[in-house]
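Here comes a specimen:
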Amino acid sequence: MNNTGARPKTLIVNTSLAREYYTGQINAVEFTEEYWKTERNMTADEIEFVYNMDMRTGNQTLHNATAD
């Protein structure tokens, strides 16, 4: 559950943005700017989905191993 007092947010990376970054058409700064433009409040269904997933998995954290 969100403990910040703010509404939970979600962001989306669409395939075309990921492809542009991967192929070098945009740099990391441009990718990040476009990514953050997708920020929005989560819907009630999304919040429930994430809550249920947390309960089933023991609140696991996903980590991109290639980011190290």
User: Anything to note?
Assistant: The chain has three helices and two strands. The CA atoms of residues 4 and 41 lie 14 Å apart.
